[in-house]
Design a protein that fits this description.
single chain, alpha/beta, Rossmann fold, 7-stranded parallel β-sheet, 15 helices, about 40% helix, about 15% strand, elongated
């Protein structure tokens, strides 16, 4: 049985695209005959579970002491070089180490694996270079890119969930990128989980419910969605639209401050039970981020039969097809976003047609096929490394 150790600076109960994809990967490989362990930050006890207890049974987790990141307490910062990381690798003696993040746990795992002669792969989930614009420090982009290049350069493979991101890796000098991870659970996220009772809890029966799911952080642009909703609502009869925002983060207070009547803010939700019902019970998904390498929530919404209104940037551009599974609007164009919201709120036939297209898009992107491919790649890397030792 091959052994895989995953070193990651984000893991459930923290909810973001990286933690979700990493957890699904571990779960999927365990089902394919891998013995898996994880090294991750230690989280506060009060955080609610988002995957239940299933992950604990699949893969033991070595937790590393961590502190909240200043200004963004949901993110935990571990101490570089923590001996728990090294001891976990020395004890488990994995056939392969996968470093899912470019921070302290990922870096320590990478260096320790190289010292012990263990093959290493990495993930490039987040375009931190583009984050420098969102956070008002564009002059740091070169420094960030050099850090990312150093981290990924020594891996055998770097997995990233879009061709756009793979090309971005090549731009900074990482030539062994592999597009992988464009998957969604089409059984978990499905229109049959629609609940009229849930809809009635938020809006009138005839209302068009718009949904946004994701972290409330500067790079996500959620304030733009709330502003566009406010503009759109002024053009329609009272109660014709409702907006639901699910997620938490450092911009939560600012996003709520933009809130209007007929807008509901839910915070982080359980993704196995509550979130699938919420997707299925909405009518349209809205998204404003320009920095996604994949945009997992886009695929989850499409699998649930929701037309998507978004800007075709980054990984989102590879899945959003204007007029087929959603509507595209120019970056940061609040007026255009509002126009699309009005259009879908008032054109039921168009909404239904885009819903069919959204589900069809998701059905071509199943996790099973992606995990089968990863299983094959990992086993081939282990085999090749054994020959060269």
């Amino acid at each position: 049985m091959p052994r895989l150790l995953v070193c990651t600076d984000t893991w459930p109960p923290q909810v973001n695209g990286v933690s979700v994809v990493t957890a699904l990967t571990v779960e999927g490989l365990a089902a394919r005959g891998w013995e898996c362990e994880v090294v991750a930050p230690r989280y506060p006890q009060h955080l609610p579970p988002v995957f239940g207890s299933a992950l604990e049974r699949v893969a033991p987790v070595t937790t590393v002491a961590s502190i909240p990141m200043p200004g963004y307490s949901d993110i935990r910062l571990a101490r570089p070089g923590d001996r728990r990381i090294t001891r976990a690798i020395e004890r488990f003696r994995p056939d392969l180490v996968h470093c899912a993040t470019e921070f302290a746990i990922g870096w320590t795992g990478l260096r320790t694996a190289h010292r012990l002669g263990i093959p290493v792969t990495t993930s490039y989930h987040t375009d931190f270079g583009r984050y420098t614009d969102a956070y008002g420090v564009p002059w740091l982009r070169g420094t960030v890119d050099r850090h990312l290049a150093r981290f990924h350069a020594s891996a055998l493979r770097t997995f990233t969930p879009s061709d756009v991101s793979r090309e971005e890796l090549a731009r900074i000098g990482v030539s062994h990128g592999v597009t992988w991870g464009r998957g969604v659970d089409i059984a978990l996220f499905h229109r049959r989980k629609r609940s009229e009772l849930l809809r009635e809890a938020y809006a009138a029966p005839e209302a068009c419910i718009f949904l946004h799911v994701g972290r409330l952080a500067a790079e996500k642009g959620v304030e733009q969605i709330v502003r566009a909703f406010h503009l759109a609502r002024q053009r329609l009869p009272e109660g014709a639209m409702h907006l639901i925002v699910a997620g938490s983060g450092p911009r939560e207070r600012a996003v709520r401050a933009e809130g209007t009547e007929h807008a509901t803010f839910l915070g982080a939700l359980d993704r196995l039970e509550v979130l699938p019902r919420l997707y299925a019970s909405a009518d349209v998904f809205v998204f404003a981020s320009l920095t996604e390498t994949l945009g997992l929530v886009i695929l989850e919404a499409m699998a649930s039969g929701l037309p998507v209104i978004a800007t075709p940037a980054g990984g989102v551009a590879e899945h959003l097809i204007d007029g087929v599974n959603g509507l595209a609007y120019p970056a940061a164009d609040v007026e255009s976003l509002a126009d699309h919201m009005v259009r879908l709120a008032t054109d039921h036939i168009l909404r239904q047609r885009l819903s069919v297209g959204a589900r069809a898009t998701a059905q071509r992107l199943t996790w099973d096929s992606e995990l089968d491919r990863l299983d094959e790649i990992y086993r081939a890397l282990i085999g090749a490394s054994a020959v060269t030792r």
